[in-house]
Design brief:
Rossmann fold, 2 domains, five-stranded parallel beta sheet, two-stranded antiparallel ribbon, elongated
Length: 243
């Protein structure tokens, strides 16, 4: 039985390493890529024959981390799938999710496709596309997002670019400033769109930054990047607890 577990561990570790190396060419380099790569290497090391105290301790740590990640990821998936959008909101915020060169990443494209669907049901809502210029991007995410939406039939006059944010917190701070100016201080309702795994943390952040009448709508996660996105989100949640 132990031999079977060790073989499985080495096999899964090799798959994780190959997967992480492949995603380097498909998505922007992120913590998620390195986390999967590191996890794969550690899994291989812990599965190599040997019963030293260090190896046994490493196996326990890996088992604990994997279990916690799976539990949290399942919660994020369930919570993020429960949409609250009414399709009558005054404004829609689309959160950035990476640009490859000048084109939205696969995950960001899915968010924008969901925004186009929302616009078809509620064309009166102003759309704020939120995302700045990343280190691996040629143009701000907001610019790439606007181009994608316009090519999908959205009137460019209904789109406002927010090009300064670098993370979720800044997404909501900067978008709120734009909307406050847009609506002149009067009460307005908002819906934000992001990937399933990102809904929970985004909703907490939005309320912390002063949004009250805010709903959410999830976009499915690109299958290619799904493991690393959930791992990265688990790490982001831990970071949020200490901020």
């Amino acid at each position: 039985m132990k031999k079977i577990l060790k073989v499985c561990g080495i096999s899964f570790g090799m798959v994780a390493v190959l997967y992480s190396l492949t995603t380097f060419f498909v998505t922007n380099i992120s913590f998620g890529n390195f986390a999967v790569l590191t996890g794969g290497v550690l899994l291989i090391i812990s599965s190599v024959p040997g019963e030293s105290r260090a190896v046994r301790a490493l196996r326990r740590v890996i088992a604990l981390l994997v279990s916690l990640t799976l539990v949290v990821s399942l919660f994020l998936c369930i919570d993020g799938s429960m949409d609250t959008a009414s399709y009558s909101e005054d404004a829609l915020i689309v959160l950035g999710g990476g640009v490859k060169g000048e084109e939205p990443s696969p995950s960001l494209a899915l968010r924008l496709d969901k925004a186009i669907e929302y616009h078809e049901k509620n064309p009166n809502a102003v759309i704020v596309v939120s995302g700045g210029l990343g280190t691996q991007e040629r143009i701000p995410e907001a610019e790439a997002m606007k181009r994608y939406l316009v090519s999908g039939g959205v009137d460019e006059n209904s789109i406002i670019k927010e090009e300064n944010s670098r993370n979720t917190r800044e997404n909501f701070i900067n978008s709120k400033s734009i909307l406050e100016n847009r609506f002149g201080g009067r009460r307005y309702t908002v819906c934000f769109i992001t990937s399933t795994y990102h809904i929970f943390r985004s909703n907490i952040t939005a309320h912390k930054k002063g949004f009250r009448d805010i709903n959410h709508l999830h976009a499915r996660t690109n299958p290619i990047s799904l493991p690393m996105e959930y791992i990265r989100e688990c790490a982001a949640l831990i970071k949020m607890l200490f901020n």
